[in-house]
Design goal:
The complex is a heterodimer of chains A (217) and B (320). Chain A has 2 domains: 8-98 and 190-216, Periplasmic binding protein-like II (D-Maltodextrin-Binding Protein, domain 2, 3-Layer(aba) Sandwich), CATH 3.40.190; 100-188, D-Maltodextrin-Binding Protein, domain 2 (3-Layer(aba) Sandwich), CATH 3.40.190.10. In chain A, 35% of the residues lie in helices and 27% in strands. Chain A contains 10 helices and 11 strands. In chain B, helix 1 (14-33) packs antiparallel against helix 4 (133-149) and helix 1 packs across helix 12 (307-319). Chain B has a domain at 14-154 and 276-319: BirA Bifunctional Protein, domain 2 (2-Layer Sandwich). Chain B is α+β, with helices and mostly antiparallel strands. Classes of the chains: A alpha/beta (217), B alpha+beta (320).
C-alpha cells in the first residue's frame, strides 16, 4: 500500500528507524527503504529519503506533501523574528518518538558561564543551533556570543573556545563522558509530522485519511 | 565586471519580462473591465502614517531617514497605502470606490524560491462594499483574472478571520491566551495549538472542538458541520457562496482554519492555490476596520496576487 498518492519525506539518521516503524503502522510498505540505503526516491510507495534538516525545505517548497523531522530542526529553521514568514510548513502531529532535550551545558564544577557573564559581561556559546541559542539568550535577557560549529560541540568548552554549549541530548551520556553538566533545559524535542500548506488544502482527503490511520495506532 | 545586487532582489531581462508583461496585461484587462481604476503610490511612506493605531503591529522591514530626520518605510503591501489615499484624496466621494494596482512591495523574508524581498503584486481594493456582495465581487474578479492569465488548475481557499477568535471568545478564553493561540494557528503549528489548549482550564469537548474546527476544509458540506459559536462566520461564507456563479463556486475550497497575516482582516479571507507551487499565489480578504484608522470608516475587501508566483505556476502548468 502506498501513501494515498502523497509524497512523504523520510529523515535518514537518528529518526530513520522509528519513522519507518510508524509508516509500517500506517500500512505503507517500507521494506525496500530499509534494504536499500543508496536509493533516494521510492516512487511506488511515495517515500523520499534525506537528511532530517532538509525535510522542512522539501516540504515547504511542495516537493514533498508531508514529512517527518525533529522539533529541533523546526525550531532552528523557523524565523520567529519575521512576522508572517513562519508559516512555511504546518506542524500537524507530535509523533512522540525521538525524544531529546535541547539544553545548555558547561564543564562540571562552578558554572563557568555564570562567571563569564558576571566578569566579562558575555557568555560564549558553541552550538549547531545558532538561531535557537540566539533567541533563547535574548529571551532570557543575557548577552551571548554565539559560535556555530558543525562537528562535535562537546569539544568547544573542553578547549576553552567557549564557556557553554547549546545542544540536543537524549541520554546525557556524551555530555557526562566529556565532564559536561546540564545547566538549563530549553525545550523538549520529539519527531513531528509536517505538511505543505498548499497540499494540506488541495489534498485534504488523502492527508486526513492518513492522519485518521495514524490516530488508530 | 560582476557588480552585486542586494539579496532577495533581482534583475528582469527581456525574455522573462515579456512573459511577466503578458501576465500583467491579462490582469489589467480584467481589472479594467470590472471598473477598477489603476493607481500608483510612493514606495516610501512616513512610518507614522503607515503604522497608525492598530496597524502598529505591521512592522515594515526597511526604514530610512530623510533629510529632516523623519523615518520613512518601504511599503510592505499596497492595501494600507490605498487606505491612506482613500481617506486623503477621496474624503467625500460616494462609495463604492474601485482601485487596482501593479506595484512592488518589500518584506524582510529569508530569500528563497518564491520568497523575494522585493516582489511585484497585482491586486484590487473594493472600498465601501460590505459583505457578502462586495466579497463575492472580489472573489469573482480574482477568478476571472486567474482565468485570463491562463491558469487551469488553481483553487481558492475561503475562510473567515473572525471565526476562530469568535470560537475562543464563546468559550471564555482570556485575551492573553487568545493572542497566543491565534499565533499558533497562524503559524500552522497544530501541535503548539493543542498544547496551548490543554494548558487552559476548559473541558475536553471544547478542546476537541477547538482542534477540529481549524482542520475543517473541503466542499460546501464543511459549512454544515460546525456548531453555534461560529454560526455567524459560517452563515457569512454561505451567503458569499450563494452569490458566486457556478464556475467560480466550483473553484472554492472552504477552509475554517484559514488565517492570514497581516492582522487587519475582519471577515472573509481567501488564498489562491495551485498544485504546482508549494505556497499560495496570493490572497486577500475583508478589512472593514482599516479605513476607520485613517478617518474614513468604510467596509472594504481586496486581494493581491504575486506576479512571480503566477509565472511559476503558469510555467509548471505548461510543462504538464
Amino acid at each position: 500500500m502506498s501513501a494515498n498518492g502523497l509524497v512523504i519525506a523520510v529523515p535518514r539518521g537518528a529518526l530513520f528507524e522509528e519513522t519507518l516503524d510508524w509508516l509500517d503502522g500506517l500500512g505503507i510498505r517500507t521494506d525496500e527503504v530499509r534494504s536499500n540505503d543508496r536509493k533516494l526516491v521510492f516512487g511506488d510507495v511515495g517515500l523520499i529519503t534525506m537528511r532530517p534538516s532538509d525535510v522542512p525545505t522539501y516540504v515547504a517548497a511542495g516537493a514533498a506533501d508531508l514529512g517527518v523531522t525533529g522539533k529541533d530542526v523546526l525550531m532552528e529553521q523557523t524565523d520567529a523574528a519575521v512576522a508572517g514568514a513562519g508559516r512555511d510548513v504546518y506542524e500537524l502531529r507530535d509523533l512522540g518518538f525521538g525524544r531529546c532535550t535541547m539544553v545548555i551545558a558547561t564543564r562540571e564544577g562552578p558554572d563557568p558561564a555564570a562567571e563569564a557573564l558576571r566578569r566579562l559581561g558575555v557568555i560564549r556559546v558553541a552550538t549547531k543551533y545558532p538561531r535557537v541559542a540566539t533567541r533563547y539568550f535574548e529571551d532570557t535577557g543575557r548577552q551571548a556570543e554565539i559560535i556555530e560549529v558543525k562537528g562535535s560541540v562537546e569539544l568547544a568548552p573542553l578547549t576553552g573556545l567557549v564557556e557553554a554549549i547549546v545542544d540536543l541530548t537524549a541520554t546525557g551520556t556524551t555530555l557526562r563522558e566529556n565532564h559536561l553538566v546540564i545547566r538549563e533545559e530549553i525545550a523538549e524535542c520529539t519527531a513531528r509530522l509536517i505538511a505543505n500548506p498548499v497540499a494540506h488544502k488541495l489534498k485534504a482527503g488523502p492527508i486526513d485519511e492518513l492522519l485518521e490511520r495514524a490516530r488508530a495506532i | 565586471m560582476i557588480h552585486p545586487i542586494p539579496s532577495g532582489t533581482r534583475d528582469v531581462l527581456p525574455d522573462e519580462m515579456r512573459e511577466l508583461r503578458a501576465i500583467t496585461e491579462a490582469l489589467r484587462d480584467v481589472f479594467g473591465a470590472a471598473g477598477y481604476g489603476e493607481v500608483y503610490t510612493p514606495a516610501l511612506e512616513y512610518e507614522t502614517v503607515i503604522t497608525r493605531g492598530e496597524l502598529a503591529s505591521l512592522r515594515p522591514a526597511y526604514r530610512v531617514f530623510d533629510e529632516n530626520g523623519n523615518v520613512l518605510v518601504l511599503r510592505s503591501d499596497m492595501t494600507v497605502p490605498i487606505a491612506r489615499v482613500v481617506a486623503t484624496r477621496y474624503p467625500a466621494s460616494e462609495p463604492p470606490l474601485r482601485f487596482c494596482y501593479f506595484a512592488h512591495s518589500y518584506r524582510g523574508v529569508r530569500p528563497q524560491r518564491g520568497q523575494p524581498r522585493e516582489f511585484l503584486q497585482a491586486g484590487v481594493e473594493l472600498i465601501g462594499a460590505s459583505a457578502p456582495r462586495g466579497t463575492a465581487e472580489a472573489v469573482t474578479v480574482l477568478c476571472r483574472a486567474l482565468d485570463a492569465v491562463g491558469l487551469a488548475r488553481y483553487r481558492l481557499g475561503l475562510g473567515d478571520a473572525s471565526l476562530y477568535p469568535a470560537l475562543l471568545d464563546s468559550l471564555g478564553v482570556a485575551a492573553d491566551d487568545r493572542a497566543r493561540l491565534l499565533d499558533e494557528l497562524a503559524r500552522g503549528d497544530f501541535v503548539g495549538l493543542e498544547r496551548g489548549l490543554r494548558d487552559l482550564e476548559i473541558d475536553d469537548d471544547s478542546i476537541r472542538l477547538l482542534l477540529s474546527v481549524p482542520q475543517m476544509r473541503g466542499g460546501a458540506d464543511v459549512l454544515r458541520g460546525p456548531p453555534g459559536p461560529v454560526a455567524d462566520a459560517v452563515a457569512g461564507l454561505r451567503a458569499v457562496h450563494q452569490l458566486l456563479e457556478a464556475d467560480v463556486a466550483e473553484r472554492v475550497i472552504f477552509d475554517l482554519g484559514l488565517s492570514r497575516a497581516p492582522g487587519y482582516y475582519t471577515g472573509a479571507v481567501f488564498e489562491v492555490y495551485d498544485p504546482a507551487v508549494g505556497m499560495p499565489l496570493g490572497g486577500g480578504g475583508r478589512y472593514d476596520n482599516l479605513l476607520g484608522e485613517f478617518g474614513r470608516s468604510l467596509p472594504a475587501v481586496g486581494f493581491a496576487l504575486e506576479v512571480d508566483r503566477l509565472h511559476l505556476a503558469l510555467a509548471a502548468e505548461e510543462r504538464l
